[in-house]
Structure formats: structure tokens, C-alpha cells
Specification:
Keywords: Nucleus, Ribonucleoprotein, Ribosome biogenesis, rRNA processing. By secondary structure, the protein is of the alpha/beta class. Among the domains are: 2-154, Nucleotidyltransferase, domain 5 (2-Layer Sandwich); 162-273, Helix Hairpins (Orthogonal Bundle), CATH 1.10.287; 286-409, Orthogonal Bundle (Serum Albumin, Chain A, Domain 1), CATH 1.10.246; 507-537, no CATH class. It is 60% helix and 6% strand. The strands form three sheets. The protein has a five-stranded mixed β-sheet, sandwiched between helices. Strand 4 (86-89), helix 5 and strand 5 (107-110) form a beta-alpha-beta unit. The chain is flat, with a radius of gyration of 48 Å. It starts with a strand and ends with a helix.
């Protein structure tokens, strides 16, 4: 079995045949390879294949790096088909396994520490082994191929460069410090001449512009400051300049102060430009992170972690405490509670939350941020626009807003609303429909059709009135008694109360649970009390539960304030249309329904039954008026009995709960 050596050079592939089959078993191989004469004796060039161009060299080198056998190398290995068994020394293990997997060749690859010595000797003495190659040409080819390979490795998009964000946010933080120092120095320096101006103007940019525009304080009264200040502050500044207690300064002092004020203005303008640039870069590189946290906090997180990819690889717990490393290690060292948030604390969501809910919102925000970062870093969505790329961030932001509102006990956001990174709520544009004008039939001027259609409608009304007239005949048959007026009044009052009380709006199960927690009751008990009308919601949305005693007092107070007195009429009043209808219903109702009442029926049906009994058997009622009590007293007794039972059940439940609390505290 013959031994061959494959040499990968920047100029092409070289195939060498070893003179000794047991070349790798020689212990003094490294010392012998140091001499070029000995190396030429050991290895003889069988074939050398050159690269046609730099692009071809790049393709071959990229395939070798990926562990694949390129086309030019397979054509070179076809010269070994004549060998029955051949072993090939290869520098790369991946390339050796790829060659052994080729079905058309019977080649066993050889790799190891001894092969590395051979390849080291080949690189040192390559011009002596391959005729026509000089060392200068080999070095140039190696340099060009290395540059092209490194350029091929960097497969990046221009929009994904996060190093620009890191530099911009660091420069922005440095500029904030320098700008603050310059502005405070300007106020202190000019304050010796006009000390009252710093109390009136808090804006650093407006202060610097006023210094440049006015100069000495004596010129302020004559200069027009409307371009720099509003009218109210302009009047206040001019009044303060007239009675100022500052010292006098020279022209040289004022020129130096003006130069410093110019630097403040330039710094402020450049800072605004840099801030807008940073926001645009953040929206292009990490749109979901920008929607969730804002461009400034997101950029600080990227700068703190080093890159967008390293930040995307971090879990939500790491993102949550990123920036609070000192507090974290101090807490771990002293065995105290670890911090709940780092840089993420300055986001608008955590700022909206109260003290007890800040940790929960920070944990949820960090987990949603981790998901959004992975989408930003690894998604191939260069063709999509900004809105499509930030869908995940917007939906996560709305979920977090709703969760914060449930924890705080506020109303949830509607479905159509979107939330911005700074917490602003935006709704879609509303549209209004104009009312369509109704067609005026009288304007047609055709009187025949109108007159023909009118009698039909009138006939329809007359037919209904005719039915009412037939019912009015019953007026002579039925005799109303004033004894039942009280019962009718109580029934009518009940109906009026039902009509006056507005229907409670239906709530979902989650809202029942939330309100029950606020009220300190179970969900079932709260739902029962809410449907009964024992619960009222305040303007803030918190429930107020009334007990039975409080409800009784409220009802009694209402009855005492507005007593209803019916006018006593000795003469028989004329029946109204409603009573006429009731009488007609009493005559038409059969007697069998009155015999077996199985369920409590509404008050209107009770009236009909009572009046039907009076019409059928008026003598029996007159004979035994004292046998049965009035229905209103029976109702009152039943109500009292039910209320007493409910109060007893509630007191039992309260006692049981108190016992449970005592046992748990014990």
C-alpha cells in the first residue's frame, strides 16, 4: 500500500508520493525534515493543479473549511484510482473523513501528530519541492486568499451593525454630563452679572440664547426676546433686569461668557441630532426591543452586554438585573435579597407600577424583552417594513399594560388601542357617518296616492280601537271594591321599583374574581350579592358591599322621606284603559288556573285571579272577610322570615371563618 501526501497551497493542490511507506514510524522525522535535500528525497511530486483565478481559490478554500471535497480536488484524486490500496496524509480531519466517504475512491486518510511535522516541512520548503513557484508569489497569493476568505466569512447586513448603536449611546451619555457642566458653568458665570435670571429661566438652551442675544443686562429692556422666550417670562426677565443686584462686568468677560453659551447651544443641537439618529438605528436593528423598553434603554442594554447577539442569548432573568451587578454580588456575599431590576428599571412600564407591583412587572417585561430580542437578532425579515417586524413587541406591550392595570385595579385597554415605548396610548382614527336626508313624500304633489294610502292606515287603527270598544262593555259587569286598593297599590309599587332599578351590567369571570378579592369575599358569594343588588361600584372601580341591616335602613329611610299617599275618593273613579284591559283579561281567564297555583306568579296575574274570584263569588268574600289575611301582610312575613334565615346563615359563616383564622394564627 503506497503512501501519498496532499499539500493545500494558495496556488493550488499538490500531490506527493512518499518514498518510504513507513515514513510516519520514523522517530527522527522532525530532524530530517529540517533539511531540504532530505525532504526532496522523501517526497516526490506526482501532480500539481493550479487555481485558475482568485475566485476559484476562494470557492475551494471555503469548501475545504466546511469539510467538503471540492471539484478540483476530486479531479486530482482520480489519479489514485489506479492504486489498489492507497493511504493519503491530510492536514484536516474533516477533509479526511469526507474523502473516505467518497464511493469511487479506495483511499484511507491518515492524520495525526506525525503528519503535522510533514506539513510544517512542506510549508517551509515549498519552492524547492514545486518547480516554478517562488516565495514572493506564494506570500502574495496567501495574503490575497486570506483577505478574500475573511471577507467571505463576514456575511452581514448593513442594517444589523450594532457597534454604531454602542458608540452612539456612549457618546450621548458623555454629552449629557458635559452639557450639564457647561450649562451650570454658564449660569454661575453670568449669574455674577444677572443673578435673578437663573431663578426665572430653568431651560439651559433658552438661558444660553438669551445671553447671546442680549449681552449686558442693561440691554435686555431694549432687545426683543420674543424669539427666545414667551411673553410672560419676557416681561418677568425685563422687570428683574431693571432691579437686578448683580455686579458689573467688562467686555472681555462677556465675550468669554458668550463663547461658552455658544458651546452650550451647539452641544444641545448636536445632542438632539444624535438622539434622533440613535432612535432611527434602534428601530432598524431592534424594533421589538425599542417598542418594549424605548430606544435609549434598549441601546444601553446592548452597550452593556457588548452586542445584540450576546444580549439575545441571555435569559430573561439576566436581562432583568443587567446593570445591577454590584448590588447582585453584594447581596450574594451578604446572603440578602437580590435586586429585582437593573437598567430596565427606567422603562415607562415599571415607572407606572406601584411599589408592590414593580417586581412582577419587571419580571414579565424582562421575559417579553428576551423573546423580542431573539426575533430581532435572528429573524431574516429585511424585506418587511418596520410595523410588521415590531408586531411581537406591540402585542407584548399591550399584554403587559393590561396585566399592570389588573394588578393596579384599573380598567383594561380596549382591543383596538396600541401602546408606544414611552407609554403613550394611541387609538385608530375615528370616522363619522352623516345622517341621510329623509325623503319628503308631501313634496311630490300627488294627492291621490296619499289619500288612498291614508284610509288603510286609519282603518287599521279603527279596527284595533273597535276591539277595545268591545272590551269596554265589561265595565258594567265588574264592580271594583276599594278594599283591594291597598293590595293593588303594593303590587304597583313593587312593579315601579323593579322598573326604576337599572339592570346591573354583566361581568366576566375574571372581573368577578378581581372585585371579589378587593371586597374580601369569595367569587361565588360576591357574584350572588352583585346580582341581588347588594354591591355598588364606586367611581374608582372599587366595590362596596352592603349588609342586610344597612339595606333595611336605606329602604326605611327612603320610605320615610317620600311617603306615598293615595287621595281618598268617595265616588267611584272611572276606570282607565289599563284597568279596562285587566277586566277583559279577568273575564277571559278560566277558573281552573285559580284552583291549583303551583308557583309564585307575577303581581299582574294575581290581580286577575283575585278579580275573577270577586266576579264569580262575591257573596263568599262578603260572608268571611276575616278568614285570610291580606296578601301584602303575608308577603311581609315571608320576607322577614327569609331575611332572618339569611342573617343566621351569614353569622354562622362569619363565626366559622373567625375560628379558622384563630386556628391558623395559633
Amino acid at each position: 500500500m503506497s503512501l501519498f501526501v496532499l499539500a493545500e497551497t494558495p496556488a493550488g493542490y499538490g500531490l506527493f508520493k512518499a518514498a518510504d511507506k513507513k515514513l510516519f514510524k520514523n522517530d527522527d522525522l522532525a530532524a530530517e525534515l529540517g533539511r531540504p535535500e532530505k525532504l526532496v528525497e522523501m517526497l516526490k511530486l506526482k501532480k500539481f493543479v493550479k487555481f485558475d483565478s482568485a475566485a476559484m481559490a476562494l470557492e475551494e478554500a471555503a469548501a475545504l473549511k466546511d469539510g467538503k471535497v471540492p471539484t478540483l480536488l476530486t479531479s486530482l484524486l482520480e489519479d489514485l484510482k489506479d492504486e489498489k490500496k492507497a493511504s493519503l496524509a491530510v492536514a484536516d480531519i474533516k477533509l479526511g473523513t469526507a474523502i473516505s466517504n467518497l464511493p469511487q475512491f479506495n483511499i484511507t486518510p491518515v492524520t495525526g501528530s506525525n503528519t503535522m511535522d510533514i506539513f510544517r516541512g512542506l510549508r517551509e520548503h515549498l519552492p524547492s519541492l514545486i518547480p516554478g513557484l517562488t516565495q514572493e508569489n506564494i506570500d502574495r497569493m496567501a495574503l490575497g486568499l486570506s483577505h478574500s476568505i475573511s471577507r467571505h466569512k463576514l456575511k452581514f447586513s448593513v442594517n444589523k451593525i450594532d457597534s454604531m448603536i454602542i458608540q452612539a449611546v456612549r457618546l450621548l451619555d458623555d454629552m449629557d454630563k458635559d452639557l450639564n457642566v457647561f450649562a451650570m458653568r454658564t449660569k454661575e458665570w453670568y449669574g455674577w452679572h444677572f443673578p435673578e435670571l437663573a431663578k426665572i429661566l430653568n431651560d439651559n438652551l433658552a438661558y444660553a440664547r438669551l445671553v447671546l442675544l442680549a449681552g449686558f443686562r442693561t440691554n435686555i429692556a431694549e432687545t426683543d426676546l420674543s424669539e427666545v422666550l414667551p411673553e410672560d417670562t419676557e416681561e418677568a426677565v425685563k422687570k428683574a433686569a431693571e432691579i437686578s443686584m448683580g455686579t458689573e462686568i467688562t467686555e472681555d468677560d462677556l465675550s468669554n461668557i458668550k463663547s461658552l453659551a455658544e458651546q452650550v447651544i451647539r452641544y444641545t443641537e448636536y445632542r438632539a441630532q444624535l438622539s434622533s439618529y440613535l432612535e432611527s438605528r434602534m428601530r432598524a436593528i431592534a424594533p421589538n426591543l425599542t417598542v418594549l423598553l424605548g430606544y435609549l434603554i434598549g441601546a444601553r442594554l446592548i452597550a452593556h452586554s457588548g452586542s445584540l447577539m450576546s444580549l439575545a442569548k441571555a435569559p430573561g432573568s439576566t436581562i432583568q438585573i443587567l446593570g445591577a451587578e454590584k448590588a447582585l454580588f453584594r447581596a450574594l456575599k451578604t446572603k440578602h435579597d437580590t435586586p429585582k431590576y437593573g437598567i430596565i428599571y427606567h422603562s415607562s412600564l415599571i415607572g407606572q407600577a406601584s411599589g408592590r407591583n414593580k417586581g412582577k412587572i419587571a419580571r414579565g417585561l424582562a421575559s417579553k424583552t428576551a423573546l423580542g430580542l431573539r426575533v430581532d437578532a435572528l429573524a431574516n425579515d429585511d424585506e418587511d417594513d418596520e410595523e410588521q417586524r415590531s408586531i411581537l413587541g406591540v402585542s407584548s406591550r399591550i399584554k403587559l399594560e393590561n396585566r399592570l392595570r389588573t394588578l393596579e385595579g384599573r380598567a383594561l385597554l380596549p382591543r383596538v388601542v396600541t401602546v408606544g415605548p414611552s407609554g403613550e396610548i394611541t387609538t385608530p382614527g375615528q370616522f363619522t357617518l352623516k345622517e341621510t336626508r329623509r325623503y319628503n313624500v308631501d313634496a311630490d304633489g300627488v294627492g291621490d296616492s296619499a289619500t288612498i294610502e291614508a284610509p288603510n292606515t286609519l282603518n287599521g287603527k279603527k279596527s284595533k280601537d273597535g276591539k277595545k270598544a268591545l272590551i269596554e262593555v265589561v265595565e258594567d259587569q265588574a264592580d271594583e271594591e276599594m278594599g283591594d286598593a291597598k293590595d293593588d297599590a303594593t303590587d304597583d309599587d313593587d312593579e315601579d321599583e323593579k322598573a326604576s332599578t337599572p339592570a346591573k351590567p354583566k361581568l366576566s369571570s375574571t372581573e368577578y374574581e378581581r372585585l371579589a378579592k378587593l371586597a374580601g369575599l369569595s367569587a361565588k358569594k360576591f357574584k350572588r350579592k352583585y346580582e341581588r343588588g347588594d354591591v355598588q361600584l364606586n367611581a374608582a372601580g372599587t366595590p362596596k358591599v352592603y349588609s342586610k341591616k344597612e339595606l333595611k335602613k336605606m329602604r326605611k329611610a327612603g320610605e320615610n322621606e317620600t311617603p306615598v299617599k293615595r287621595p281618598e275618593t268617595p265616588t267611584k273613579p272611572e276606570p282607565s284603559e289599563k284597568k279596562k284591559k285587566r277586566k277583559a283579561g279577568e273575564i277571559e281567564t278560566p277558573v281552573q288556573k285559580l284552583e291549583t297555583p303551583s308557583k309564585p306568579e307575577p303581581s299582574s296575574e294575581k290581580k286577575k285571579k283575585r278579580k275573577a274570584e270577586e266576579n264569580e263569588t262575591p257573596v263568599k268574600k262578603a260572608e268571611s272577610p276575616c278568614k285570610s289575611e291580606p296578601s301584602s301582610e303575608k308577603k311581609k312575613k315571608k320576607r322577614k322570615h327569609v331575611e332572618i334565615e339569611e342573617e343566621a346563615a351569614e353569622t354562622k359563616k362569619d363565626k366559622k371563618q373567625k375560628k379558622k383564622k384563630r386556628h391558623s394564627e395559633a
